[in-house]
Amino acid sequence: MNVPERSSMIKSNYQRRSFIMANKKRNVYKPKPMTEGKRNIIQGLLQEYDIESAEDIQDALKDLLSGTIQGMLESEMNEHLGYDKYERSEESNYRNGTKPKSVRSKYGEFEVDVPQDRNSTFEPQIVPKRKKDISGIEDKIISMYAKGMTTTQISEMIEDIYGFEISEGMVSDITDKLLPQIEEWQNRPLSGVYPIVFIDAIHFSVRDNGIIRKLAAYVVLGINEDGYKEVMTIEVGENESSKYWLGVLNSLKNRGVSDILILCSDGLTGLKEAVQTAFPDTEHQRCIVHMVRNTLKYVANKDMKAFAKDLKTIYTAPDEKSAREHLDDVTEKWEIQYPNAMNRWHENWDVVTPIFKFSTEVRKAFYTTNAIESLNATHRRLNRQRSVFPSPSHCSKPSIWQLLRQQRNGRCRSATGEK
Q: What confidence score (pLDDT) does residue 73 get?
């Protein structure tokens, strides 16, 4: 596809998306037609509650909701016992007073008196035992958590909006209910072949046994056979070693991955040896952009532009032989001023050279880990309000849950859904 055709296609897709968004109907409730019965109810509410503001309406609805639930509980008990309140009966089971219960709703918190029976066999349905929330607040808490809010912020937000307190511990307990679904996602089957796989790390502060330390969440992003990005896993690593990476790669194999054509990463300790063991036919490519950045750390600002231009002659060379000649030339040119600058290139030449086996167009797809770094930037923004995670297992929880929400909302075909 040439440049004009590509531009035309992009413009067409943009116009189509704009048209769809412009014509997409918002999910707004449309009131049903006013009837005489509804007018009488509204008039009765105005008289009963002396309503003068929107806040008065909320208070009235809360009172009505509590009264309605109380009435339904009494009806459920009547059905359970087989006779109405104050009726005589020969049944051995009978009413045994009430028990107060605080109930949380979207209108606020209120109290109802739950009827009790002598045999303790009554199981209310409108507000089941051990359940105090009928507001759907758990879904809202999980949604806030997935959007990057901390447990403290969520607790304060719930109190501001709904008028009842939710402890930080309760917020944490609710979000921990995500863990089985996250574990299921981590163990889901994968495709057999991935043409390209990227690995990169995000570092977080974690409280572990009372000590705050840095841990890395390693994101493994694959390009599947359809050309779509797919987050294969997110692993929280204690340290980088061949043994650790071999465990990660073998986990991918156990989930169905039989072959990876190209694996691109930064200089992760022990990864090269693990790739050779787990996927001996895979080309392990060091990220060229990271190589350039790490080299230029040794270079003064006045020489940086010229040095970067010389480095470009290495990784844009047509073949490995030419690249080696350029490497020697650059080293010889700059080694007096910057004797250690090119050491990384010589030491890692075996994982720099795979790029020269491919055409210029193919090289652009994997010579850098930018594809995964853009995803990691999103994860960093998601977690920037969390200065310290309470445990290592919580590092990847918000990021994975955000990916799962995107899948369920149909916003992606795979775990990221971008080509």
A: 84
CA neighbor of 108 nearest in space, from 69, 73, 59:
59
DSSP annotation of 26: P
Residue 320 CA to residue 323 CA, distance in Å, equals: 5
CA distance 140 to 171: 11
DSSP letters spanning 354-386: GGGGS-HHHHTTTSS-HHHHHHHHHHHHHHTT-
Strands 259-265 and 211-223: unpaired
Q: How far apart are CA 267 and CA 271, in angstroms?
A: 8
| Segment-wise mean pLDDT, segments of 10 residues, the chain, 419 residues | 41 45 55 76 75 78 78 84 80 86 80 88 83 71 68 75 69 72 84 90 74 79 86 78 88 92 87 91 89 90 92 91 93 91 91 88 77 69 64 63 55 47
* CA 306 remoteness from chain centre: 41
Q: Exposure of 323 by Cβ count < 10 A (0-12 exposed, 13-18 middle, 19+ buried)? A: buried
pTM over 0.70: no
> What pLDDT shows up at residue 30?
72
Going by the DSSP 8-state scheme, the letter that residue 34 receives in this structure is P
d(CA 260, CA 224): 10
List of residues 6+ apart from 371 with CB closer than 8 A: 198, 221, 223, 229
Asked if 287 and 344 touch (Cβ cutoff 8 Å), the reply is: no
Alpha-carbon distance of 413 to 407, in angstroms, equals: 7
CA 271 from centroid of its chain's CA atoms: 26
3-state SS class at 249: helix
Q: How would you label 214-223 residue by residue, b for 16+ Cβ within 10 Å and e otherwise?
A: ebbbbbbbbb
pLDDT at 387: 62
CA distances from 28 to 24, 42, 107 (A): 12, 22, 19
Q: Are 205 and 387 in contact (CB under 8 A)?
A: yes
Q: What is the dihedral of CA 378, 384, 390, 394, to 10 degrees?
A: -10
- What are the tokens at 96? 């045994």
Q: Which long-range contacts (CB under 8 A, 24 or more apart) does 203-212 make?
A: 204/383, 204/386, 204/389, 204/395, 205/387, 205/388, 205/389, 206/388, 206/389, 206/390, 206/391, 206/392, 206/394, 206/395, 207/388, 207/389, 207/390, 207/391, 208/391, 208/392, 212/388
- Scan for tokens 């003068």, then name that residue: 52
CB contact at 8 A, 205 and 229: no
Tokens of 329: 């030339």
